[in-house]
Amino acid sequence: MDKASVKRKIAHETREMIVIVLFLAPFFLSFSTFKMYVTHDLRNAFFNYGLALFNALVLAKIILIGELAKLGKSSENKPLIVPTLHKAAIFSLLYLVFHAFEIGVRGWFHRTGFVAALFDESITHRGEFAATGLMLFFGFIPFFAMREMRRIIGEDKFIDMFLGSRHLPASDHVAVAGEKLA
Q1: Cα–Cα distances in angstroms (integers) from residue 72 to residues 54, 83, 154, in the given order
Q2: In this structure, are residues 28 and 53 in contact, taking their beta carbons and an 8 Å threshold?
């Protein structure tokens, strides 16, 4: 690999990371806000928001590594809904595994022990783990639907459709009600 291709690869991966974080950060920040208001615990807002941003960064990296490892690739030749739901489920479960690991490491640092922290978390916050998984799964559906659409139509055309001109090229023109096709 020459220097130019390495630089392009790094630039591409950095852009991918930024795009994923920009999607996930508001999602995690809003969920943290909701959780703080439901529990009436606004004391650690900066810590909770920092943790939400950190989780967005970590999950973005997990998604990039998962895509590099070709997770969910087996369903890509099926109708769009299949790889979308498949990848949403896979990456939701992957996040939950990393979240459980984070809880265990936090317990280890606080001298309660890895397994004891997992047990304590599962007892004191029984439904929170499942709720987080469901929330993430349903949040991932539009995220992976867009990524699958981008994969199918191509990155340039996808970006042009979202950020560029709203007019499609003549070859992609679709008839509108009452309009005649030439």
Answers
A1: 25, 7, 19
A2: yes
Residues in the chain, pLDDT under 50: 177, 181-182
Separation of alpha carbons 135 and 128, rounded Å: 10
Indicate the burial class of 94 (C-beta count within 10 angstroms; 0-12, 13-18, 19 or more).
Answer: middle
How large is the C-alpha radius of gyration of the chain?
Answer: 20
Assigned domain for 1 exists: yes
Number of structural domains in the chain:
2
Domain span including residue 109: 72-166
Q: How far apart are CA 158 and CA 160, in angstroms?
A: 5
Q: How is residue 57 written in tokens?
A: 């960064």
Note the pLDDT of residue 182: 47
Q: Is residue 177 part of a domain?
A: no
Q: Do 47 and 76 fall within a single domain? A: no
Assess if residue 115 is contained within a domain: yes
- pTM for the model stands at 0.75
